[in-house]
TrEMBL record:
Annotated Gene Ontology cellular component terms: membrane
One Pfam match: YycI
Protein name: Two-component system regulatory protein YycI
Stretches assigned to the Regulatory protein YycH-like domain: 36-260
Length: 280
């Protein structure tokens, strides 16, 4: 074996050694970064408890979601059309909202109202397009029982797709309002979102959770982000919604955070061209 050949053998051996070392360091660095993020989150959660902020189990698992578009069902749309087949109630459709009053009140158990109302919602002669909705205990109160429209497996967290049953003091449902999101389209491929844990930590770091308060629930759903200039469509994104109750005053507030980029969402919308989103 000549000297030059030996040199090449040693060169490739050292090159292979460098690749192995570099790969191991990369894996180690990724582990350190992930571990550091987890440690920082644990420290912040401890700070929250020190500030008398209480909360239940918080999930650190990553979720996924879409950019979606759709439009609120209007007069002569799917909801208005389906409402013509309803029985035992007086209905009126106006401002993209169906309003209905039952001929006879419906008794419900205030602790488990969904047991009776599920039967109602799944009956197409009682509730229009009811198969698209699910009971949402987080958004419900003793006087208003909320069913949210499910879009790509998640609830609509704003009023573009909800049934809101009104309950009187005798625990009877007397009427309801309903909206429906129609023509739902996926604008961009499924994308990873931040975790529930990261959403809570982010809200605390940005002073959105007051001391001496309780996080009652944190739910991932779709919320309206933008109004568009294309056929009156709106853009919807995955949103973590947290409900926070101040222990002293009893004040309750709901805060929304963009699950893609951690931006705290305000009750304002801007205009966008959905064709541009489709091209990205």
């Amino acid at each position: 074996m000549d000297f030059k050949r030996i040199q090449w053998i040693f060169f490739f051996a050292f090159l292979l050694f460098d690749v192995i070392i570099a790969s191991s360091l990369l894996v180690e660095n990724r582990f350190i970064v992930t571990n550091n993020q987890s440690s920082r989150s644990s420290v912040i959660l401890k700070e929250m408890k020190d500030d008398s902020i209480s909360y239940g189990k918080i999930n650190s698992g990553q979720q996924k979601g879409y950019y979606l578009s759709g439009y609120r069902s209007a007069e002569n749309g799917a909801l208005d059309d389906a409402s013509t087949r309803l029985h035992n109630q007086e209905t009126h459709f106006s401002s993209n909202t169906l309003t209905s009053e039952f001929n006879e009140p419906i008794n419900v158990n205030i602790e488990t109202p969904n047991v009776r109302l599920n039967e109602l919602v799944h009956n197409s002669h009682q509730i229009a397009l009811g198969k698209h909705y699910q009971y949402n205990p987080n958004l419900s109160t003793k006087r208003v029982i909320v069913y949210t429209q499910m879009v790509e497996g998640r609830p609509l967290m704003n009023n573009d797709g909800q049934i809101r049953f009104r309950v009187n003091s005798n625990h009877e449902v007397t009427s309801y309002t309903q909206t429906f999101l129609e023509g739902v389209r996926i604008l961009r491929p499924e994308t990873a979102t931040i975790s529930q844990k990261r959403a809570v930590v982010w809200l605390y770091k940005h002073n959105q959770i007051p001391n001496n308060s309780r996080i009652r629930w944190v739910q991932l759903g779709y919320s309206r982000l933008l109004s568009t200039n294309t056929n009156n469509r709106n853009v919807y994104i995955p949103t973590w919604v947290a409900e926070i109750k101040t222990k002293n005053s009893g004040a309750v507030e709901q805060i929304s955070i963009n699950a893609f980029n951690s931006t705290i969402m305000k009750n304002t919308t801007t205009s966008v061209n959905t064709e541009a989103l489709n091209q990205k």
